[in-house]
Amino acid sequence: MLREPVACVVDPYAGGMSGYTGRYEKRLSDLNGLYENAQAHAALVTRLNDPVVYDVEDFRPGTDSGDLNYGVTRMSPGCVDREFFFTRGHIHEKADRPEIYYGQSGNGLMQMESPEGETRVVEIKPQTICYVPPFWIHRSINIGETELVMVFAYPSDSGQDYGIIEMSNGMRHRVVSGGDDRWELVENTSYKPRTGEQVAAFMKKYV
Fold first, then answer.
1. Is residue 58 predicted with pLDDT exceeding 60?
2. What pLDDT, in 10s, does the model give residues 146-199?
3. What is the DSSP string of 87-143?
4. Domains: count for the chain
């Protein structure tokens, strides 16, 4: 049976989207254990009364192959010590599925990591489309002083897998403030590289 076409209106500044079917938010406490400076993280949770770091409104017509989920992510500005606010990050459960992000307002980054541990970073500004290819772990980061608002879209049967990041104690690099509106990559000293066997087992189901 054919589905009816739908139109959703996005507010590029407030970050809302009409007609959404789902909504969730992540507070700073939900990101416990992800920032390098755990003490600074705990102190900021208390001092700011556990603020919302990001929220998502999305439209999910179903989980059928060939369909499309889309929505809006709104991220607050801020830092834990020198480390910018970020999303938890994930790879798609069906890792051969891509995703796109379209910048609406603000200034952000998409940090990506291959299963082997290679890092790529794409800047996202208004009217910037970021393409996240299949098999790349990805995380959004707000490096600006205002909210970062992005529209996203991905295949409906993609799913999300957070375990690949957890097994490595985070992503290989951290994005930190370099001062004067600059950012830089630094090594995550807790990072555990995935072994060749782990990568081979992960990729095997797609060969």
1. yes
2. 999 999 999 999 999 998 899 999 999 999 998 877 999 999 999 999 998 888
3. ---BB-SSTT--EEEEEEES-EEEEEE-TT--EEEEEE-TT-EEEE-TT-EEEEEE-
4. 1
- Cα–Cα distance measured from residue 69 to residue 146, given in angstroms and rounded to the nearest whole number: 26
pLDDT of residue 176: 97
Residue 12 lies in a domain: no
Give CA separation, 155 vs 36, 41, 135, 190, in Å. Answer: 33, 34, 14, 32
- The domain of 84 spans 22-204
Kindly state the average pLDDT of the residues 116-123.
97
7 part of a folded domain: no
DSSP character at residue 29: G
Let me know if residue 6 belongs to a domain. Answer: no
Report the CATH number that the domain containing residue 115 is assigned in CATH: 2.60.120.10
The model's confidence at residue 65, banded by pLDDT at 50, 70 and 90, is confident
